[in-house]
Write a structure and sequence with these properties.
The structure holds three protein chains of three kinds. By secondary structure, chain A is α/β, with parallel strands linked by helices. Chain A has an eight-stranded mixed β-sheet with strand order 2-1-3-4-6-5-7-8, sandwiched between helices. Chain A starts with 27 loop residues before the first helix and ends with a helix. By secondary structure, chain B is mainly beta. The chains are: A alpha/beta, B mainly beta, C alpha/beta. Strand 2 of chain A pairs parallel with strand 9 of chain C.
Chain lengths: 315, 102, 397
């Protein structure tokens, strides 16, 4: 990661994501949108997949976006971005693009990435477009009212994985989207959390720089108060605990090399520094039904994942 | 207010005014209101950083608080603040208080 | 041929081309910037030829090898939104997979141009030609041409860019899968410099530019959605005039024009066949000759433009006949008539108070062979007073 911002006072001031948007109070993804636009700057085209961030920011005739923005559909944001990248590069060669170097950034949720958009994402990565794809992960289809996605964690309650007498919450584990992206051998991919803004902003800068070489990817954890069922003032805390418990490790894949970032690197170096997973789960209504045995099972998965990442980082 | 007719609307459903969502004042959503107690504020910028609405403004100037000089103070744009309380929750010195809307 | 004879000073370039290759040559002449195509029979040879042009440096375009037709249409929508001149092509299942994005291309008012060698739809799977795929795009807000020769395909693709960029709507150019896409005809190519002058680059209002940040593809509530969609309806209806003007100017420049409907011996016809596509039109013309030898005053109307529907021409030509038949190469399943274009023609007449009896003929489904004698039989049925029925021609019933 290239460290552009060392401290909070280095962060960019100009806002390119305007107030007045209709995201819920305490929206985690809205925090991500602010920092994506601020960090990328005005020479950026945003391609947004259908989802919360699309419907809450572009209610006609008003838009929160202060950079050129397009929403095409749910499953094709990577394909539309590929077309924009192709257009900019070809038109530049022909003298028809006069706006200079322009970032092309996809912003898509977990439904639009893990599930319906996976094919167009894979195609875009394979073809090597100069696009930064940002997944903001709130771990379910929140826009349609909290349905499970491939990004929903095991045992979580959603409206389509209710806590019943026979089956209690989601049966399957969260998909390893970073693993899928890394398998495309892109120049750069990283995880980030809205609790760790400086780390996130540096990763956005790094990813954008590397798009000269090819596609880059950011997986940003962005908690959702109504979907995760916690009080709306605790959004940042939820994201922070996800990192501190090892539930959502911060790491990056830079030209084939995996590197753990703080505080995940410290947790892995000294497991005593990892907070118990229960800290992350206990205030979320979506996990309220969990038994001690289920929490223990999830904790084992968290530790196994950290060990797996540590092994990758040692290679 | 009467809405524009077919030929008064730009084609393709495009919105030509960036940031026009500012016409939509979301302050009315609020049931709790954050109040910044400037005497307890250490200017750490954390509330500004985490606000999902971008409603916390850095006002430049000369501000003396408990004998310490600062070049900034923080103000909340209540036109848009939805009262989520993230700022108060994250504030390390508890300088922001959530009070019921009058 | 219907080509208007004009004096062409320069030596003509005439190549033996399939309709698919004719498309590729037209795309090259149009100096397209971005092409996104996924292979599917019978479209594939278009993208193969374009790939040759790009890889040989004859066409300065980026060819995006997308992983599906859905992404093909999405990529050209993105590229067109960024201001590029774009092209894609598909057939059959690929067109169905694109369907969602077809509405978005017209709703965003993007001048996308697409070639559609028409093909039957699954199931059962058929790689052969009919117009089932195209007819399913009827209400997507696209201008739709159906060409009947390789020359017309070439000319129409070039016209399509001019029309699309003038009225800001996407345009598709369709023609018979296999019967045209894979058969070779002589095609006269235009001077590419002259095509460049015919297709000047213009700045569009709805493009993504950092210096003028617009939001495209917004979320519209009931207070707004209707007006924005009505604009598409109005632009599409109004585009007929532009289509005719562009065709006329093209004729003056390059010596060939086609009109929005093409007629054959309609001047004194009592009985008319309305058809579309190369095979149906060819058969109908020959059948009209044979019918006339039998004393039946037969004529043919070919739809060259399917959307916007050329209602005024249909009314003009059919209001003077005793009876008509529409030969559809698609089934409007469960509909009030047998074929989709028959339903359109009947509506056009009814809306204008014209009461002429007609027959809906379904033929050439899944490329079932169509014979000239079949079309002669249609004229005889009309002469014998058969009317208001659906005929599934060539079906083993």
């Amino acid at each position: 990661m290239k460290v552009v911002y060392k401290a909070i006072w280095d962060l960019p001031v100009e806002e390119l994501f305007a107030s007045g948007h209709r995201a819920c109070a305490g929206c985690g993804p809205a925090i991500a949108m602010r920092w994506i636009t601020k960090t990328a700057g005005p020479n950026t085209i945003v391609v947004n997949a259908t989802g919360c961030m699309e419907v809450t920011t572009t209610q006609y005739p008003e838009t929160a976006w202060m950079v050129p923005y397009i929403h095409v559909a749910f499953e094709n944001s990577a394909a539309a971005a590929a077309g924009i990248d192709s257009a900019i590069r070809t038109m530049t060669k022909k003298g028809l693009w006069k706006s200079g170097k322009t970032n092309v950034i996809v912003i898509a949720g977990d439904g639009g990435t893990y599930d319906i958009g996976l094919q167009s994402l894979s195609g875009m990565l394979e073809r090597g477009h100069h696009v930064l794809y940002i997944l903001y992960d709130n771990e379910a289809y929140m826009n349609t009212g909290i349905q499970r996605s491939g990004g929903t964690p095991r045992f979580a309650w959603t409206t389509t994985t209710p806590v019943g007498k026979a089956i209690r919450g989601k049966i399957q584990a969260k998909k390893d989207i970073m693993g899928i992206v890394m398998a495309h051998r892109v120049p750069y991919a990283a995880t980030a959390s809205i609790s760790n803004i400086i780390d996130m902003a540096n990763k956005i800068k790094t990813a954008l720089e590397y798009t000269e070489e090819g596609p880059t990817f950011l997986h940003i954890l962005a908690p959702c108060p109504p979907g995760w069922r916690f009080p709306e003032e605790r959004t940042v805390e939820a994201a922070r605990l996800a990192v501190e418990t090892g539930y959502f490790p911060l790491y990056e894949y830079d030209h084939g090399k995996v590197r753990l970032n703080p505080p995940t690197s410290a947790i892995v170096a000294d497991p005593k520094r990892r907070k118990p997973l229960r800290e992350f789960l206990k205030f979320q209504g979506r996990f309220a039904h969990l038994t001690d045995a289920e929490i223990e099972e999830l904790e084992k998965e968290v530790v196994a994942n950290l060990n797996y990442l540590a092994k990758l980082a040692s290679l | 207010m009467s809405l524009p007719k077919v030929h008064e609307i730009p084609i393709g459903g495009i919105i030509t005014e960036p940031g026009s969502s500012r016409r939509n004042l979301t302050g009315g959503w609020r049931s709790l209101k954050p109040i910044i107690h400037d005497d307890r504020c250490i200017r750490c910028r954390i509330c500004w950083m985490y606000c999902p609405e971008g409603t916390i403004k850095e006002v430049k100037g000369e501000f003396v608080v408990k004998g310490k000089k600062y070049q900034y103070k923080y103000e909340i744009d209540y036109n848009y603040c939805k009262g989520c309380g993230i700022c108060a929750h994250e504030c390390p010195t508890k300088a922001i208080e959530m009070v019921p809307e009058a | 041929m219907t080509a208007v004879a004009t004096q062409i000073q320069k030596a003509k370039t005439v190549l033996a081309l399939t309709s698919n290759y004719a498309v590729a040559y037209a795309v090259k002449a149009a100096d397209v910037d971005v092409v996104a195509v996924y292979p599917i029979t019978p479209q594939t040879t278009i993208v193969e030829k374009i790939a040759e042009f790009v890889d040989d440096g004859e066409l300065n375009a980026d060819l995006i090898h997308v992983e599906s037709e859905h992404s093909a249409m999405s990529a050209v929508v993105g590229a067109a939104a960024a201001g590029a001149r774009v092209f894609t092509a598909t057939s059959s299942q690929g067109l169905e997979l694109m369907h969602e994005v077809l509405h978005i291309a017209s709703g965003l008012r993007l001048p996308v141009v697409m070639a559609v060698p028409a093909r039957a739809l699954s199931a059962p799977i058929s790689i052969h030609g009919d117009y089932s795929d195209l007819m399913n795009t009827r209400d997507t807000g696209w201008i739709t041409y159906i060409a009947s020769s390789a020359q017309e395909v070439y000319d129409t693709v070039i016209q399509a860019y001019r029309v699309a960029e003038s009225v800001l709507l996407p345009v598709m150019v369709s023609y018979d899968g296999f019967l045209m896409s894979h058969t070779t005809e002589p095609v006269e190519l235009n001077d590419e410099e002259e095509v460049k002058r015919f297709l000047p680059r213009r700045e569009r209002p709805n493009v993504l530019r950092p210096e003028k940040p617009i939001t495209m593809g917004a979320f519209a509530m009931p207070d707004w959605y209707y007006e924005i969609k009505y604009q598409v309806q109005e632009a599409l209806q109004g585009s007929l005039k532009t289509i005719e003007e562009v065709d006329e100017e093209y004729g003056r420049t390059f010596g060939r024009r086609y009109g929005v409907v093409q007629t054959y011996k309609m001047e004194d016809a009592d009985y008319a066949i309305v058809a579309y596509g190369g095979a149906s039109f060819g058969n109908a013309r020959e059948a009209a000759e044979i019918a006339r030898e039998k004393g039946i005053k037969a004529g043919v109307i070919r739809l060259r433009v399917f959307r916007p529907f050329p209602t005024s021409y249909i009314v003009k030509y059919l209001s003077g006949v005793k009876a008509f038949a529409v030969v559809d190469r698609a089934i409007a399943f469960g509909g009030p008539g047998g074929g989709p274009v028959f339903t359109d023609v009947a509506t056009a007449l009814w809306m204008n108070g014209i009461d002429v009896p007609g027959i809906s003929v379904i033929h050439g489904i899944g490329q079932r062979s169509m014979y000239v004698e079949d079309f002669v039989k249609i004229y005889e049925m009309l002469r014998d007073g058969e009317k208001n029925k659906v005929v599934y021609m060539g079906l083993r019933l």
